[in-house]
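Board notes (copied after class):
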Amino acid sequence: MSNAQSFKQNIKRKCSGFTLIEVMLAMAIFAIAGVALISSTDTHFRSLSHLETKMMANWVASNQLVEASLNKSWPPRNNKKGKVELAGREWFWIQKVAKTSDQNMSAISIEVRLDQAQKSSLTSLTTYVVKEQK
């Protein structure tokens, strides 16, 4: 056998493939990366869902404030409650009226919840209304 042939056989033996340890190490690295990617994606979708819920609650509160501003009765009704459907969900809102230092002005706050029994609101918006002068 010539030196060239023995050299080729030695190279083939040395470059025949990965060892078991190398394969297991590569699999462990890909598994850790996969778990991190799934965790990151889950966190992203949870945040996105929460932002969507807050945005819808703000729309409900904004709509109720516009309705309260258009109502011409004085003083505005306190602790008015209701529910409205938006985006396939039921939203519960409570209107709270607060007096201001000016007798011709009141502050109206709308709190929105997904459940009537829920203690904390998803959002709360406030506007001021003025008594019409005759």
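Comment from the instructor: The chain has a mean pLDDT of 87. The longest helix spans residues 20-70.
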